[in-house]
Specification:
Blueprint (H helix, E strand, L loop, with lengths): L5 E9 L2 E8 L2 E6 L21 E5 L3 E7 L24 E10 L5 E10 L2 H16 L7 E6 L8 H15 L3 E6 L5 H9 L7 E6 L1 H19 L16 E6 L5 H7 L4 H10 L8 E5 L2 E6 L2 E5 H10 L7 H13 L3 E9 L46 E13 L23 E7 L3 H9 L13 E13 L5 H7 L5 H12 L12 E3 L2 E2 L5 E3 L1
Parallel strand pairs: 8-9, 8-10, 10-11
Antiparallel strand pairs: 1-2, 2-3, 3-4, 5-6, 6-7, 12-13, 12-21, 14-16, 14-19, 15-16, 15-18, 16-17, 17-18, 18-21, 19-20
The structure holds adenosine-5'-triphosphate.
Amino acid sequence: MERPPRLLCSELRLQGRVCEVSLSGAALCWREAGQSGRRWGSAGVYGPLKAAGSHCVPVCEIIAVQETEEDSPSTDVGKWQKVPQNPSSSNQHSFTVSYVERTLKHRWRCSEVTLHCTDRKLCLQWVQAIREQLALLTIRPKRLLVYINPYGGKQRGKRIYEQKVAPIFSRASISTDVIVTERANHARDHLKTEADLKKYDGVVCVGGDGMFSEIMHGLISRTQCDAGVDQNRPDEELISCGLRIGIIPAGSTDCICYATVGSNDPVTSALHIIVGDSQPMDVCSVHHHDTFLRYSVSLLGYGFYGDMLTDSERKRWMGPARYDISGVKTFLSHRYYEGTISFLPADGTVSTPRDKIQCRSGCNICQMPSLVESTYKAEDSISEAETKDTWQVIRGKFLAINAACMSCACPRSPKGLSPSAHLADGTADLILVRKCSRIDFLRHLLRHTNKDDQFDHPFVEVYRVRQFRFTPRYQETDSELELREVGAGSSKHFFTQICREHPACGCTPTQSSWNCDGEILPHAAIQVR
Ligand SMILES: Nc1ncnc2c1ncn2[C@@H]1O[C@H](COP(=O)(O)OP(=O)(O)OP(=O)(O)O)[C@@H](O)[C@H]1O
């Protein structure tokens, strides 16, 4: 591959040593003059960019450059710059380049290198040349609208933003309008109606998954409203949002941030935002008949995860510990629910939930043009398959019905609920955990935390789907019930009919709620697309 031409090349000083520094449209590189073969330099950098004896930073990972005032604190970080003690090596003019340093576990840090010049003209020439290259990076945001949930997670959202994020945004010359929310849905309502979105290049969410969901709803609803799209129609073609959402993790689980960035570290997220990284995401629309309920990007869970959320919402005062307590309680209650799931399978030749391919930024499968509709090869475990329009139907008793639009990886479950789910392939993984013993269910749950295949149990089925519907048993139509009651006595049908019309009756099967990205849905019968 042809190397991009050098734009500037000089001998500058770094920590008292003479270095050959060069700038091209692709990278800023420096190495000790005459020591090209020897390794030297600064703190450890992981990745291919630091070859022995030289250091290269891609231009797209330079955060900022500024002329450094000698013997004075640098303006944004409050640190004093090191000035060489030896007068002969002292240069009065220097500039500091801030750049992304990749460290372990997908974490990014903001590093700095200060290069000293013999005269100010040269120093300014370098600053200008680097700034010109940065100005060509048009995907970088310049103006952001930031919403902070001060009550998310351990209530550290405001502090995290002020101490860790705002200083790097200002170093990168990003201007911000910051709104600290005063109530639930403040951000959503502001985005839906008031916010002047034309002013911004993106929206930043400082909070957890619930806060992200609020902002996503505000932005999607605003986009549909502006385009005259009726969200209540389940088959309506939605318009993509023009603005990106950046997530600064400050919640309890931060699952969406973890699944997209690979870590839940605020500085890493801030740096991804600054360099203009983007990751498209699938969004499921959830309807109850012709009523729009919510959008989902991570987990739709009925049964175990629905009950756990319902219980944990009553314990919000406990903070993040509520999830553990509610998890144990829900597990011990071991409730199962009856109902019918119908789904439209995805093209099984492109990817499957058990193919062990992990979706990452730039994933080939997510970049494929719209996947060809094809009939999915039904797995043997499907008890009653209907072939009409390739929809398939499964009835049964379930401990959990989960639909994962993404892996749902988080620090507690590093692989997530569906490790091979894709972020942006237009599908979700439908995971059905049928009624089984407590010990079997525990074995399944424990596999979320280790490397074993969590779908490798006879009571667990997984399907990659494009759409699905769920009807709890007592809401099933007469034809659905007739199918189920084949062989059963007419008296049973008679009682089921009574129970259906009087759901308060004690003998109706109990009903769970859907956990939609951490929010409880008001209906159990849903259509998801
Ligand atoms: N000022 C506020 N007062 C009360 N609730 C708020 C406020 N701002 C936002 N919320 C709501 O708080 C809920 C929870 O917020 P968030 O997602 O940030 O934290 P979390 O629930 O602790 O984390 P996670 O969702 O990752 O588990 C959100 O659904 C959001 O609507």
